[in-house]
Amino acid sequence: MTDFLELDKLKEECGVIGVYAPGVENISQMLCFGLIALQHRGQESAGIAVLKDRKMQYYKEMGLVQEVFSSEILDRLPADIGIGHVRYSTTGESYVSNAQPLVVRYKGGSIALAHNGNLVNAGEIRDRLEDEGSIFQTSIDSEVIANLIAKNYHLGMREAVIEAVKEIRGSFALVVIIDNMLVGVRDPHGLRPLSLAKMDNGYVLASETCAHDVVGAEFIRDIEPGEIVVIDENGIESIMYDETKRKAVCCFEYVYFARPDSIIDGKNVFITRKKAGKILAQESPVEADMVIAVPDSGIAAAIGYAEESGIPFDIGLIKNKYMGRTFIQPDQKSRELAVRLKLNTMRENIEGKRLILIDDSIVRGTTSRRLVNMLKEAGATEVHIRVSSPPVSHSCYFGIDTPNRAQLIGATHTIEQIREMTEADSLAYLSVEGLVESIGMKKNELCTACFNGDYPMDVPKEGDKNMFEKC
Amino acid sequence: MTDFLELDKLKEECGVIGVYAPGVENISQMLCFGLIALQHRGQESAGIAVLKDRKMQYYKEMGLVQEVFSSEILDRLPADIGIGHVRYSTTGESYVSNAQPLVVRYKGGSIALAHNGNLVNAGEIRDRLEDEGSIFQTSIDSEVIANLIAKNYHLGMREAVIEAVKEIRGSFALVVIIDNMLVGVRDPHGLRPLSLAKMDNGYVLASETCAHDVVGAEFIRDIEPGEIVVIDENGIESIMYDETKRKAVCCFEYVYFARPDSIIDGKNVFITRKKAGKILAQESPVEADMVIAVPDSGIAAAIGYAEESGIPFDIGLIKNKYMGRTFIQPDQKSRELAVRLKLNTMRENIEGKRLILIDDSIVRGTTSRRLVNMLKEAGATEVHIRVSSPPVSHSCYFGIDTPNRAQLIGATHTIEQIREMTEADSLAYLSVEGLVESIGMKKNELCTACFNGDYPMDVPKEGDKNMFEKC
Amino acid sequence: MTDFLELDKLKEECGVIGVYAPGVENISQMLCFGLIALQHRGQESAGIAVLKDRKMQYYKEMGLVQEVFSSEILDRLPADIGIGHVRYSTTGESYVSNAQPLVVRYKGGSIALAHNGNLVNAGEIRDRLEDEGSIFQTSIDSEVIANLIAKNYHLGMREAVIEAVKEIRGSFALVVIIDNMLVGVRDPHGLRPLSLAKMDNGYVLASETCAHDVVGAEFIRDIEPGEIVVIDENGIESIMYDETKRKAVCCFEYVYFARPDSIIDGKNVFITRKKAGKILAQESPVEADMVIAVPDSGIAAAIGYAEESGIPFDIGLIKNKYMGRTFIQPDQKSRELAVRLKLNTMRENIEGKRLILIDDSIVRGTTSRRLVNMLKEAGATEVHIRVSSPPVSHSCYFGIDTPNRAQLIGATHTIEQIREMTEADSLAYLSVEGLVESIGMKKNELCTACFNGDYPMDVPKEGDKNMFEKC
Amino acid sequence: MTDFLELDKLKEECGVIGVYAPGVENISQMLCFGLIALQHRGQESAGIAVLKDRKMQYYKEMGLVQEVFSSEILDRLPADIGIGHVRYSTTGESYVSNAQPLVVRYKGGSIALAHNGNLVNAGEIRDRLEDEGSIFQTSIDSEVIANLIAKNYHLGMREAVIEAVKEIRGSFALVVIIDNMLVGVRDPHGLRPLSLAKMDNGYVLASETCAHDVVGAEFIRDIEPGEIVVIDENGIESIMYDETKRKAVCCFEYVYFARPDSIIDGKNVFITRKKAGKILAQESPVEADMVIAVPDSGIAAAIGYAEESGIPFDIGLIKNKYMGRTFIQPDQKSRELAVRLKLNTMRENIEGKRLILIDDSIVRGTTSRRLVNMLKEAGATEVHIRVSSPPVSHSCYFGIDTPNRAQLIGATHTIEQIREMTEADSLAYLSVEGLVESIGMKKNELCTACFNGDYPMDVPKEGDKNMFEKC
């Protein structure tokens, strides 16, 4: 079944983790636990690469972390240092060769590399490398980065990494095993998150702090935009390789991508979402009997909206937790029924009620109409949609799979038109200012490009989308 | 990983569905959709049996519905009438031969039978049948019932079914295909639920109304305790085969088993749970800053408690939806970490707060202590446990997998002792009267035996547990 | 790809094995090894049942022995006594419930039963049992036998087995675990083979002696027609339960079914096949340059024919050993090519040669024409077919899957017509007398019914084929 | 079970196929059929790469061809041009990334490359490329070759291929898709075979002619040592890129590797094996009653030996065709039994006979002793081993997995010592001259290095084995 709920969401990007802990057992298992905590960032493939006594091994496969790995496989992957990756693919063709980490051999040994983000100049660099006779075996940015590092090997590996990351533009949170070191890199804008934690006898790098929690590591700090951290037997060294760019943390991590229990750049995601709900209640109040959420992503904002408005939070829609991703292909008629496999209304609880329905975002709008209809059919007298982020009106070039602008309802319709389409009684979005306030940073420390086109760097023209797989 | 959350819950029983709709396409698919909606009632095996032009076929296998069935398999199972079953097994040995529906050949053709419940006299009847030379190939009650029906075939099949169900004692909701009829039976006490719905050109029987919703059928009524319904080309016939027993609907369907969007014997499950939360707030108030739930089953009661107490409902614990049932066997140390794979605290949201933690039930108590510790570690200043059902103190003989009384904390400890074990600041259970009130039936229409030992019929002595597989 | 080679062969029946060796380790593994040796008798499903300390367990599944079993599964099946079965199904519907051994519970405990053969009165008996209210869950004869045993349990199990086998008619080689005994039974005609061997601290029963070899057991003797052997802690007891019938050993075991290294009723299969080739050379000589075989089943007779005729044996056709049973469905054109995936000509070796092509049997004749054409295309100047058995002209009712008489080329065509169809330069079959002589028994000790209609007992009329699955 | 028969054989190398036939349907299926015919050359992984309308796609996976491919997968791979590969890996670590064909992107588009053979200067070239900053993602020679081609892209792709193959040393039969062309290359010594065939509207290149047969293509000629063939819309162009080296066709293709129905460099493999048997009979006659073969590879020579000696060919050992490659790990005792799962003696046929046992080669010698013992135990009075190739005494560097010299019995023992070890009554090998004569080429057109150390080019010193995976 097409997952109609997820159809209307921007797609998750990738997640990365790295562990440096020579002498500690079970590092491969920790990587797996961390990847399970990051699974929401990518469900297509999973992989880990480990270095033990300078020998590199890896395992990666299509599927969820728990489908890909078993105790038996982990036992064959002893580690001093390890990195892991979960991936969401933007294309139908999903070659396992595009799974990460990418492990390559270069002059000085092996490099393993895992990348979350999207380079805007990968094509350019690749062209240049191909001019010199390089070949490419994958369609992922990471291969370009690995080539750049290898080209500079004569500078020593620390310098080689620095030179490489200076050449690339776009969004990136990288974890790299090279030369007995674990290296973490965050792009100069800090578009993608990366944070550092301390564990007994070691360190952990991860896209989100929820991954630190499951390995029992204690959060230290976020990696700074433009920072490289090198972790080896001498401890942690920090190198600021580019401090010329403005900070531009991705808003959508707070809106939808990140887990609510994660802290990104000092802000707890759940708290920002609840705050967004409160501000939304201030900006767009409406008289009603009950605040309900589109599960699960709308819950935090709904609680905030309820708290601010004084209208009680309650349950109007329930999700079937046994509804997997793939299934029997239903014909048109059963498709209509099948949506109820995923989501059902709490009829008796909402009958005769005026509802405020909180969603975190609307991309295409088709789902919203279905939900409004289901709720009314179940007896709701009014349904007022409140969206806890602004309309998405511009494509992302930094690692998020946005449809073409032509398919973004926020780019092509007025809010009143959208309301009509959804058949809601009223509809309102959070303002950009409200979103910024909810996160608690300055506006120019955030990337709000998908809402207002204010990109932190030059981006390709529409139609000229980068040929590389994003991640 | 041992699933520590589910360890502390009574186990789900089975779920059944039946569809009578000659001429309608996709009946097999409907059965599957219905079973997915009932998946929470049994995740071990799934199966369907179908009759088309008087030819019976079936398919059943270990696994979740979506693992067992594919479009290809369903295409090979055209149907006029069909039944389906999902099963939870109480034993480690799970032969596929114990999966249901059971399909047998008898004098007059084929019978297919799916059963939710547990017979207390199955052993007795089997002994008698074996005395006459019968053999048994499974360890499920259903085989005993099929034998009883076949023994009476000479009376005609309607009468044979009536005679058979008069002989069995215990809990049962049955759906049966026999002689071109779909038959539904509910035990004289109505211990297990079964409801009837109407669809275009046909009828649906299901354990819960949520299964009607996904096939687009409209709820008509519950099958009565002691009622047989026979659905065939002449429509529906109702036969009251035993009206001598008191009604004794299972309380635990409302407390934990059933889906919140289902209606059982006229009562919506979510509403009863919310009501239970409200009464709990009246019975056992406590001063606090926030009401949180053990996800997902405590949410409804938590909302009710919050509403009644005026203390805001909020999120303190979050579940990882990608945490599957089986995984890497962790060693002792990683086990401690691994619990966080399943559940994490919303640290920033609860820091410095006094919490009321709502759980629907406590069986062993070990989980409660872990949760209290996790919450305190995350900064909660107080944790008050409120349980939205009474202490479970007696074994169930009617289809629920209760541990021995010795393992039931409610049978062996005082409430103060339990509070000490859980390290909570206070702990209170809902009273039996409160539970009864929340459901909205009379006390003597409900089975409250697991709370007070008041069994609606004679049951085997402790230690003398029926050797048959429950379901 | 349709396997064009096997299309023209009668289908293998089933194979059984039993081991009695309390105290010996690895009995489950031995059963598996034995079943691999018997795999040629059935490739559809495989299973074993074991008794240890009076506890019965079993495992059976669709697939080859090595697909069904693993070390892990065998480790869970400790045994004092065990039986095993491989099955070939004559129908497309292959429910795993029809796999054997059949394990049932009866008054006195458990019975496990594995059966090779086909009962001609199973329907009749089943009707009678159903009249008494029995139900049936499979479509295999074995279930009828188990019921008969259970009906007589009050006589004691030895007597119950005797009474049961006296009631059934047809072909059967049975191995049964009952009441801590291993029981072997052969039908009164001895249609299907069963032999006994001695191992350290135990005994083995098997369809063919090649299974004894792989478990290191030493052949003692064949079970006699009409004999029951009971093996228990007191040793072996032999019971002659029916000595009124003539011996009628199945000829086709020697012609095609059995492995060449097996000894059946005192005759080594390879030796009888070589002898058949020699007699065929005497009966139907022809001038030629080379004797070649249809691999692999024609090789023994070809060596005999070569030896007798003085014309050298050589290789003209070679089989691809990596050609599995299922594959890509080719369109018409690639089907023609695909036959060469299975079999290719040894062009340079046969160019310009006059060939004698030895096949063990011809059922439909289509394959023979293809082979003649392939050989001529490869340069053979003449191809003379010699078949080392007589034309198959009658259906089998004793466990062999023969097509309807209308599809048996030997029933509908003269030998000259068959020669024309195959486009061979000449064609001759072995005579029935020649076949009998090659086996070395008296004609009235063999069942030659498929060649001449001389059935050893009354059989159903054509069109009235027994509804039970054969085996 | 350790496969004791194959333990004593040199391991097969890889097999390649290429098809150029724009407009023809089912090219992917043809590639699969061809790979099945070549499956004996590698059972570890299989893959194909196809070009359709200049778009390259590929699919490769661990496993046999029929395990890797399905109709569904082939349907997704439409082709104008395609190549395929089956692989045998010499190491335990078998990353799918080492499976072939290798598909890479270079300046001008995509290259797909499949390689049979082993480069002796791959390490050297890779070092040089790494000095320039290249990275490597696999451990297969093919990646080196692809890099060399890409480095020369500015010369145009025909020239780039020529330049690349001029740099590599060792054995190679290559098929390459590049720039809408199918290119075939054979190394200057012709160590590994490659042949060309014509089909309707297209051409086929394959390691062995048996692959031509299954796709219905007609053999044209072998590719010459030092030849490149370029097949495109203009037809076939032949380029002799190196005519300075002596021809050195691998003897072992005739002795063991190739299928008997293949023709390699003008010689039919079966005919050369039969001839080897005849010469062996002349060189090493012995008085006996019967000539038998170690199945299947000794059969051709046994037939030749029988024909020359006048002693009849017969069957003494029979192979179980259902014995797969992997199985239950037997303990020591069952290991002894388990050998009989693979091979059994034809006791009655050999009892009291003096046997000549023909094997194609002996590597370690352990198997020979077991066979001699089995045969004597079955009643053979004498067993005389005759080996239809000379003792293997030197390692191969050209694509065959020979053990270290220390493990080659032919390098460390005299023939009399080997006889003693095998417990045979006599033992003789074919002479190098006899082998050369049986093949029918001049000695200096063959590589006989594994028998006499006469390598056609400089090879690494012992212990300095190339780090790349062979193939």
TrEMBL record, chains A, B, C, D:
Nucleotide-binding is among the record's keywords: no
Pfam families: GATase_6 (PF13522), Pribosyltran (PF00156)
Protein's pathway: Purine metabolism; IMP biosynthesis via de novo pathway; N(1)-(5-phospho-D-ribosyl)glycinamide from 5-phospho-alpha-D-ribose 1-diphosphate: step 1/2
Family named by the database record: In the C-terminal section; belongs to the purine/pyrimidine phosphoribosyltransferase family.
Protein's UniProt name: Amidophosphoribosyltransferase
InterPro entries (UniProt xref): GATase_2_dom, Ntn_hydrolases_N, PRTase-like, PRTase_dom, PurF, PurF_N
Coiled-coil region(s): none
Residues that, per the record, bind [4Fe-4S] cluster: C250, C396, C447, C450
EC number: 2.4.2.14
Organism superkingdom: Bacteria
Cofactor(s) this protein cannot do without: Mg(2+); [4Fe-4S] cluster
UniProt domain Glutamine amidotransferase type-2: residue ranges: 14-234
Residues at the catalytic site: C14 (nucleophile)
Function: Catalyzes the formation of phosphoribosylamine from phosphoribosylpyrophosphate (PRPP) and glutamine.
Reaction equation(s) it catalyzes: 5-phospho-beta-D-ribosylamine + L-glutamate + diphosphate = 5-phospho-alpha-D-ribose 1-diphosphate + L-glutamine + H2O
Keywords noted in UniProt: 4Fe-4S, Glutamine amidotransferase, Glycosyltransferase, Iron, Iron-sulfur, Magnesium, Metal-binding, Purine biosynthesis, Transferase
Cofactor: binding details: Binds 1 Mg(2+) ion per subunit. Binds 1 [4Fe-4S] cluster per subunit.
Binding residues annotated for Mg(2+), in chain numbering: S297, D359, D360
